[in-house]
DNA sequence: GTTGAGCGTT
């Protein structure tokens, strides 16, 4: 029913964006819309998804028409349990209203309602960050790194080298082998794909020469006959006189 | 079928 984000940003003239984090990967905009709509007028709900897989990244953006409603939603929905996962609702940075939020209007409310959440932010390694950046790089920086982009094996080579640079771990080895296997498999497929085409003529050629010898066999068949004849002739020759002799002897 | 830090689509 709700096709938010599918047609692009609807009307972001006076909308306040909220960032919903820690949501399940299966949560969709339709699931968040009713929940957030209960606390205010939601004009748009958007969940960034992966370009390739299409799965949600685990966070969503909810746009409210009014900041007070958005704040209320944050106060009510932040820390709420959704699908067995506690979601975190906070104001989004991106957006035309982000400036206003930073100004202090929302911040004021937020300040007064300090809940002392220790989960605000903590230094943690980025894993998917590289993933996301890489994905975006491939699209926008295509022309900048045309050369590198075109070189697909470059990445594998780099990782390969990196793996080697690091310590040799069994797990790493497994990953490395997996990638190599994939490459090899794809190569195998390529070769196989092309092999029938190229080997096709070979097969025909193989058959051709086979046929030729086939005919040769025919000739051979004839030759054995002649050979037989000669063989027969030979014994016959020896035998020929034999009977004659025997006859002669006998007689 | 999987995972769990973080900020978005025309």
CATH-scheme architecture of the domain at 16-91: 2-Layer Sandwich
Give the class-level CATH name of the domain at 16-91: Alpha Beta
- Give the percentage of residues in beta strands: 5-15%
Indicate the radius of gyration in whole angstroms.
40 Å
Provide the CATH superfamily of the domain at 16-91. RRM (RNA recognition motif) domain
Report, as a whole number of angstroms, the end-to-end distance: 120 Å
Helix content: 55-70%
Sequence stretches where pLDDT stays below 50 over 5 or more residues: 103-248
Give the class from helix and strand content and strand pairing.
Answer: alpha+beta
The strand count comes to 6
Please provide the ordered H/E string of secondary-structure elements: EHEEHEEEHHHHHHH
Shape: globular
Please name the CATH topology of the domain at 16-91.
Alpha-Beta Plaits
If strands are numbered along the chain, what order do they take across the biggest sheet? 2-3-1-6
Structure annotation, total helices: 9
Layout of helices and strands:
Blueprint: E1 16-21, H1 29-37, E2 42-46, E3 60-64, H2 67-77, E4 81-82, E5 85-86, E6 88-91, H3 98-103, H4 105-112, H5 128-140, H6 146-150, H7 152-165, H8 170-239, H9 241-250
Antiparallel strand pairs: 1-3, 1-6, 2-3, 4-5
This protein binds one DNA strand of 10 nucleotides through residues 4-9, 17, 19, 21-22, 25, 44, 46-49, 57-61, 85, 90, 92-95, 121, 124-129, 132.
């Amino acid at each position: 029913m709700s096709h938010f984000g599918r047609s692009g940003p609807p009307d972001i003239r006076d909308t306040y964006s909220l960032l919903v984090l820690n949501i399940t990967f299966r949560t969709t905009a339709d699931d968040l819309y009713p929940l957030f709509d209960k606390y205010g007028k939601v004009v748009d709900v958007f969940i960034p998804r992966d370009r390739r897989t299409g799965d949600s990244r685990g966070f969503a953006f909810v746009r409210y028409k009014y900041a007070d409603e958005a704040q209320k939603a944050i106060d009510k929905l932040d820390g709420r349990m959704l699908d067995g996962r506690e979601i975190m609702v906070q104001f989004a940075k991106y957006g035309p209203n982000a400036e206003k939020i930073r100004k202090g209007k929302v911040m004021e409310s937020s300040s007064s309602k300090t809940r002392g959440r220790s989960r605000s932010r903590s230094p943690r390694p980025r894993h998917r960050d590289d993933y996301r950046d890489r994905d975006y790089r491939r699209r926008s920086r295509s022309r900048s790194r045309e050369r590198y982009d075109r070189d697909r094996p470059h990445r594998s080579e780099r990782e390969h080298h990196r793996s080697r640079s690091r310590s040799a771990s069994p797990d790493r080895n497994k990953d490395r082998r997996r990638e190599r296997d994939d490459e090899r498999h794809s190569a195998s497929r390529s070769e196989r794909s092309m092999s029938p085409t190229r080997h096709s003529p070979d097969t025909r050629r193989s058959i051709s020469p086979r046929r030729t010898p086939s005919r040769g066999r025919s000739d051979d068949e004839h030759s054995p006959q002649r050979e037989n004849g000669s063989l027969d002739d030979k014994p016959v020759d020896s035998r020929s006189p034999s009977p004659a002799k025997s006859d002669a002897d006998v007689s």
